[in-house]
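Notes from hallway chat w/ T.B., transcribed later so I don't forget. T.B. wanted the structure written out for a chain they're using in a teaching module, and asked if we could keep both sequence and C-alpha cells in one place. Agreed to drop them here.
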Amino acid sequence: MFSFIKKKLGWGQSAPEAPAEQPAAAPATPAAPETAPLPPAPAPAPVASPPTSPIVPAPAAAVPAAAPTPAAAPAPVAQAPAAPAPVSVAEAAAPRAPEPERRSWLDKLRQGLKKTGSGIAQVFTGTRIDDALYEELESALLMADAGVAATEHLLHDLKRRVKETKATEPAQVKALLIDAITELLAPLEKSLEVGHTTPTVIMVAGVNGAGKTTTIGKLTRHLADARQRVLLAAADTFRAAAREQLGVWADRNQVDIVSQEGGDPAAVTFDAVQAGKARGCDVVIADTAGRLATQLHLMEELRKIKRVIGKAMDTAPHEVLLVVDGNTGQNALAQVKAFDEALGLTGLIVTKLDGTAKGGVLAAIALWSRQRQAPVPVYFIGVGEKLEDLQTFSAREFAHALLS
C-alpha cells in the first residue's frame, strides 16, 4: 500500500565487505614483518569488482586472519559501497496492502462496480460475434458513462484485437475488452511520491460532497503509519465544521494542524507551509474549501491559494490533487477539466466507487488525459468509509472488477 512513499536514505552501511577480502592473505601470516605490507597489494584489486566480495566470505572461515586485518585497515576498500551514493531517493516504506486485505478490498471494488459491469458483461452471454454484439456493447459502455469518445476508442481497439487474435467466442472478446480497458487506463497508474523536497506540500481540491476532508484524513493516516511527519492546513474556512472535522482527523492520527477561525484560506496555507519548514515536517497537506467549477470567484481564490503557497516555499505546491466523486459520471470529467485549467492538476483520487453505475467515467478521463501534455494519474480509489477502503489504483484490477 505504501509503495507511493519515498524519502531520503543514507548509504555506506556495507563496511563488513572490507575485511572479507583479507582471508586470502592468511597463509602469509608466518612470514612475520615481510608479509605485513603484502595485504594492501591485493586489496585494491577487489575494489574494481565488489560483486565478488559477498561470494568469497561464505567459505572463508579463516578467523586467524584477524591479526593482519587491523594492519590492512582497509579505508580505501570500505569506500567501495559508495557506488550507489548518487541514488539519493529510494523507496522506503511498508509494502503494499497485505494480500488478504487487498483481496477483501478487490471484492468490495467488484461489488461496487457491479451496477456498471453487469450491463457490459451481459453482452458476452451470447454465442456469436457479430454487429449486434458490438452494438449492445456500445450501448452498455455509454450507459456506464464511458462517454462517446472513449466508447468509440474501445470499440475500435477491440475490433482490431478480435481480428488479430481470430477470436471466435464472445468469452474471448470479453477477455480482449479487459486488455483494451487495461491499456487505456494504464497511463493513470502511478504512485504518489513524497520526499523529493522537505516538506512535500500537497494541495487538495474538490467539489462539496466528494469526500475531500475524509480522504485527507485517510491519506494522513497512511503517511503517519509510514513514519512521515505530517502537518495539516485547515484552509476550508467556508464550510461549517470543516475545521473541526479536520481537527478530529489530526487528533486521531496524532499530527499537527494549523487553523484559524474565520481566517483567510491563503494566509492559513502560508502559515502552515512556514510551520512545516520550521518543524521539519515531511509532508504538509492543505485542505481547501469545496466549490463548484462554475463558481468563478471561488476558483479564483484557489488560484490565489496556490500562488501564496509558492511564495511560502519555492516549487510548492509539489502535488495538486483533485478528489472526484465516482458517482457523478461525466460530470466528474467536467470537474477534472475545469480544475486542471485553473490549477494544473498533478493527480486524482476517485472516491465512492462502492455502488456506482458510472464507473466507466475513468475511461473518459483516461482518454482526455492522453490528449493532455502530461497524463493526470489516479493515485487512489475509494470504495467505502473505512481506512483500508482507500487503496492504490491498478488499471488491470479495475478492468477485471468492471467486467467480473
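Follow-up for T.B.: The mean pLDDT is 77. Might be a good example for the class.
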